[in-house]
Amino acid sequence: MKTKYLYIIIALLCIVIVSLLTYEKTETYVFKSDNTVFTHNFGTIKKEADSIIEIEINYLNKEFDSLKVYDVKDGCDCTNSNVRAGVYKKNETISIKTFYNPNKYNDSGETIKQIFLRTNKKTIRYDTIIPIKIKGFVK
User: Fold this and answer.
1) Fold of 26-138
2) For the stretch 47-64, what's the b/e string if a residue is b when 16 or more beta carbons lie within 10 angstroms of its beta carbon?
3) CB-based burial, 84-104: b 16+ in 10 Å, e otherwise
4) CA 102, CA 60: separation in Å to the nearest integer?
5) Are 40 and 26 in contact (CB under 8 A)?
6) What's the pLDDT tens digit per position in 101-129?
7) Residue 32, C-beta contacts closer than 8 angstroms, at least 6 positions apart
8) In the chain, what are the domain boundaries?
9) 64 vs 31, 72, 89, 92, CA distance in Å?
């Protein structure tokens, strides 16, 4: 009987540990027609042999009645980003998932990466391409 409870406690601890290890930092930004470059700070991460950081960035379309998103392009091959292509109505959220591998180029210290969201509207000075900076500190 005691071993049964021990297994249950171990299972719960494993679930908590896995949840903490896969915790995502998510923020919601709002589209504006000015010259804003969006910057997402992923904070401080500890680099490990197989660490890949998952970042979710949400943008709220408050500016356009309809905004067509084509895709997202990565600024380097240490990031792998994806977004659901399609039309986003006003007040809908565009969710971008980015996977960042700090080991690809042995990043350490302050790190800034860039991805580009391609749309059909002139949103900022970069025409229809919205640059998004991802920055943080890699230990």
Assistant:
1) Immunoglobulin-like (2.60.40)
2) eeeeeebebebebebeeb
3) eeeebeeeeebebebebbbee
4) 28
5) no
6) 998 888 889 999 999 988 888 766 656 77
7) 63, 124
8) 26-138
9) 9, 19, 7, 10
Name the pTM for this structure.
Answer: 0.70
Provide the token pair at 83. 């977004």
**Token representation of residue 109:** 């210290």
Residue 54 makes CB contacts below 8 A (sequence gap 6+) with 22, 24, 97, 98, 99
Is 73 in contact with 83 (CB distance < 8 Å)? no
Q: Write out 114-127 in H/E/C secondary structure.
A: EEEEEECCCCECCE
Residue pointed to by tokens 């180029």: 105
User: For 3, which DSSP code?
Assistant: H
User: CA 40 to CA 78: how far, in whole Å?
Assistant: 16
